[in-house]
Amino acid sequence: MEWPSLLLAGFAVLFIGVAKAGFGGGLGMLVTPLCVLAFGSKPAIGILLPLLCAGDAFSLYHYWGKWRKENLKFLLPGVVVGVVIGVQLIGKFSPRQLNIAIGVIAVLFVVFQFVKERLFRAEGAFTPNHAVGVPCGIGMGITSTFAHGAGPVAAMFLVPQRLPKEVFMGTSILLFAFVNWIKLPFFAVDRSLVDLPVFAPEALITPATLLVSAKFFTLVPLGVWLGVWLNRRFSEKTFLRMIQATLLVTGLQLIFNFDLAAPFR
Questions:
Q1: Given a cut of 60, is residue 265 above it in pLDDT?
Q2: Into how many domains does the chain fold?
Q3: Which of 30, 94, 250, 254 is 20 to 30 A from residue 69's alpha carbon, by CA?
Q4: How far apart are CA 149 and CA 34, in angstroms?
Q5: In this structure, how many other beta carbons lie within 10 angstroms of the beta carbon of residue 1?
Q6: 9-60 confidence digits (pLDDT tens)
Q7: Which of 114, 134, 105 minimizes the C-alpha distance to 28?
């Protein structure tokens, strides 16, 4: 890998830990688009999942017990269905089409950040239920499979509950820990090993992707520590605006595939 790709990938993996520690709400959404620019769409999805699982494990330590675990029973059944649908769809798209899908999710997340306050301004807190939870879970499973980008769908279910900040973070971390572990067998097993229609024709996690994941692993706990430190010392408002701007530009780059080197020729 050339140094620009290494730099993009390194920042992306560091951001996993920072976001999982609760600093920079939209930062996690920047991880996949940056890694797609560094590695390509399919390799990036497979490389990131073990690192995300590691980030979940480190961040659960900091938020242990600060969650509303009843949300799991409303969302996880739909998540399993969504992941199965997602792994089937990945094989149907070219790398360019996957880039566009990931870019669209990134841009929609930025838009969601600006409208969510108005969207959830209704009086009273939302009481979670299966009628809303199962469709949201399916949406989470599909978007998480394509881009590890289920944050907006999860927020649509969790934000209206008006949870305290620490409980919201703890619940989100617990939820995504389960989501990522659910995805793991579907990403690592293909139909050449287990001939069942729920598995993808081609595995996304391979010995080659695991080797790349291992090379970047130490950045995950470093990012968690950095996120906890930043959370205690800095306001997120300006930082979030920078993240949203970067995510918007990255998403547009994935969608339109601009020739960034053109001005330098």
A1: no
A2: 1
A3: 30
A4: 13
A5: 12
A6: 898 899 898 888 776 666 777 788 888 888 887 888 899 999 999 999 988 8
A7: 105
For 138, residues 6+ apart whose C-beta sits below 8 A from its C-beta are 78, 79, 81, 82, 85
CA dist 251 and 262 (Å) reads: 19
What is the rounded distance in angstroms from the CA atom of residue 248 to the CA atom of residue 233?
26
Q: Output the pLDDT for position 261.
A: 42
Q: Which of 176, 95, 185, 98 lies closest to 141, judged by CA?
A: 176
Q: How far apart are CA 258 and CA 206, in angstroms?
A: 30
> Could you give the 3-state DSSP secondary structure of residue 91?
coil
Contacts of 188 (CB under 8 A, 6+ apart): 203, 204, 205
Six-digit token pair at 53? 């699982």
Structure tokens at 154: 């999860």
> Residue 104 belongs to what domain range?
3-264
Q: How far is CA 225 from CA 14, 59, 106, in A?
A: 10, 9, 25
Measured torsion, CA atoms of residues 128, 58, 189, 133, in degrees rounded to the nearest 10: 0
